[in-house]
Predict the 3D structure of the following.
Amino acid sequence: MPGGRRGPSRQQLSRSALPSLQTLVGGNLGNGTGLRNRSSNSVGLSAPPLSALITPEPVRHSRIPELPLDSSLLFEFLLFLYLLVALFVQYINIYRTVWWYPYSHPAASTSLNFHLMDYHLAIFITVMLARRLVWTIVSEVSQSSGGSLLRYVVLIAARLSLLTMCGWVLCWTLVNLCKNHSVLNLLFLGYPFGVYVPLCCFHQEGGKSQTAPADCDYPADHQQTELTETPFFRPRDFLFLLRENLREQFSSPPHMPIHTCPPHTHSHTPELIRAEVEELKSDFNRRIKEVLFNSLFSAYYVAFLPLCFVKSTQYYDMRWSCEHLIMVWINAFVMLMSQLLPPSYCDLLHRSAAHLGRWQKLEHGSYSNAPQHVWSESTIWPQGVLVRHSRCLYKAVGPYNVALPSDVSHARFYFLFHKPLRILNLLIWIESSVVLYQLYSLLRSERWNHTLSLGLILCCNYYVLFKLLRDRIVLGKAYSYPLSSSSLGLKSQ
């Protein structure tokens, strides 16, 4: 009405109803926290912090039971036994005969052409496959070397004798192989080590890594060694890297890191979480590198190297041998993954990913009417909050978000481990596919060597698949337990 008192307009009501930045996210202007309006201006407001108004929901973790895991010595023995069976199967595929056929020329009295085999090569491959088992035995003996002086001397003598015998056998086979084969064939013997040195020894996780705080509860031997800041390593650094990487290949996996749920009241909680994630990423990458190298190493020496020393007049089924090579690599990969990434380790990664969170990048112009905040590294962001970082808009996906929005490695870490059974499901899918394919091949096989090969390999695969399915059933029930602070099967921070 003209001359009457006008109330607040609809636009003013809507603006006054919007919560401020400090109400949603907390902090102060010093942390870089402010409300971004439509004109992209940052306005600092004095309001209670986020922890007092909107506290992120506490991250609760399911307690998983202690599943039985093979000891290092038992696992190395089982892996060595499987590789010996696979090597025997490959020799059957290469040197098989038609010993039941009476008109063969020349007449075969045995099932294999033993006179065509190179025993020095077979012994060399066996020693190379046993390297991890031998070193594990030496390490186990070294750890239990307590007691009297006489026992200590006997253990030292046994270690030296075992290593000396292995070294002598390796040198003896190499000398005989050098006498009977060409230089090109001899180059195949050490090809994996020639590839390992440039790929693994020179690759470092971002140079100098940050040292993990003491609150992350990491042992001292997990801290990465600081290297020189120069881009080129000195010979001393190269020898140090080579010695450390070879020691990792021969030694058993180190002790598992410990995850500690950070308290909400700690002012440096986001920094601690990000530092813990960086350490876990380095440890996970080291384990994956060890799995890939050892699986490829095993497949190379078991299935590929015997083909390189076959005479040109010897016939063998190339397709079946290549298929055997792929199967050996896949089975060795699954066995090493299940041992080096046990359920407790995957649960550790899952807990860290739950505290890390993830950011979803949004298109420009979206959510223009919603409150947008400037990302701060010292703030724990709740789910659904919109932040701006590096001129991009991000939305918090997890219930607890401290990740760097522009860091792709943080997003990848959350994607891989925010579901605790993702890796285990992947291993089960791979092993089940291999077993089903081998069963199908067994039903369609018409040759005796194919039937024998598949039967022997399937016996080993059944054991691996049984362990994976057992862990999946137990962990599936543990993680499906309802998350409540009053339940006994849960752990809340």
Summary: The mean pLDDT is 75. The radius of gyration is 30 Å. The CA atoms of residues 298 and 392 lie 47 Å apart.
